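Hi P.,

Sorry for the delay on this. The queue was packed all week, but I finally got your sequence through. Input first:
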Amino acid sequence: MKQLLKTLTDFFRIKNKKVKIANYAISGLLVIYLGLRIYPNFLFGHSFKYKNFNVYSTQPLGDSIQTVLDETEIKLSSSEIYDKGLTHNIYLCNNYTLYTFLAPFSRKAFACNYPVINNIFIANCDIDKNEAYKNNAKDQYIRQLSALITHEMTHTFIEQKIGFWKFRTLSSWKNEGYCDYVGYGQADNLKEGQKFLLISKNDKKPGTEYRKYYIAVNYLMTVKNMTFDNLLSTDQSFEEVLNKVELEQ
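Then the structure:
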């Protein structure tokens, strides 16, 4: 009996020791992974610091990057919530594996922003063409790189303006729509928006939804002259705003 108890005690002791080692190993790997997401600079061989932009890239950065950043700053300055004193780190991955590693929950998106640490990861881009792409050969949708960077940075300014928790409960159409509004401005007039809704209002594809978010916010900001605070406080639903866009003369 004593031998049996000793055997069981030794077994559980060894088991607990293995569990502790496994937990320490998992915790260590998690800390390393989070550290890489916070400070992944050494994974990028090229860098460029300009004004309030720190750009890191896996590929050489030519002179065009300054043009893209100047255009980004012009777009950002059109927003009433722009904080020109805030610096952002922009990581141009141009590599599916690297981007997926750093932004696993946004691997199918153009970019990912972590506002708390001001890190923006961009999946794929061509700086000379000022174009951004998804890491998906089947998805041919192209975004303007400067508009994409502006969009992601504006998320940070929104969180800074309204706070961590309120930012995470903000309606997607207000959040994403405002970021695209700053990124693209009044690129589409009312008539073009109405034409788009006529053929795509019931289309639920992500790219189409974002376009409708933009149309709704663009309408409220330019036609109804809303401020950012007005946009946040309006109790109109997304569907109600789109209906008003369609009926606007």
